[in-house]
Write a structure and sequence with these properties.
The protein has 106 residues and is mainly α. The protein is 67% helix and 4% strand. It has a two-stranded parallel sheet.
Length: 106
């Protein structure tokens, strides 16, 4: 942070920079309404409503993560619907559910 700048000013400048980079990414594709995926950048998939351009490796990685989440969710659901298993496995199930939620947030 530069001398004399407040935390709010710094946050505002960071938001403006992210917005500018997003606009530049769209312009650089020569297609309006296209988002260029930024590896390690501030991508908010839930807010995107336009085509997204990303590398094949990034796409495969995201698909693999989603598939793993789906399998884990199915397993947790099966455990929760079986009462005998649920009683014995509840501490493990809770840890798995927490881990799944934390993984979806990141």
């Amino acid at each position: 942070m530069l001398p004399g700048m407040t935390e709010d000013t710094t946050d505002e400048l960071r938001r403006e920079l992210a917005h500018t980079r997003a606009a530049l990414a769209i312009v650089e594709t020569n297609r309006p309404g296209v988002w260029l995926w930024e590896d390690g950048g501030a991508n908010d998939i839930e807010s995107l409503s336009c085509p997204v351009v990303m590398s094949a490796d990034t796409c495969r990685e995201l698909c693999a993560i989603e598939a793993a989440h789906s399998v884990l969710h199915t397993c947790i659901t099966e455990l929760l619907t079986t009462s005998a298993r649920m009683q014995m496995a509840m501490p493990v199930v809770e840890k798995l559910r927490d881990a799944l939620e934390r993984a979806r947030v990141t």
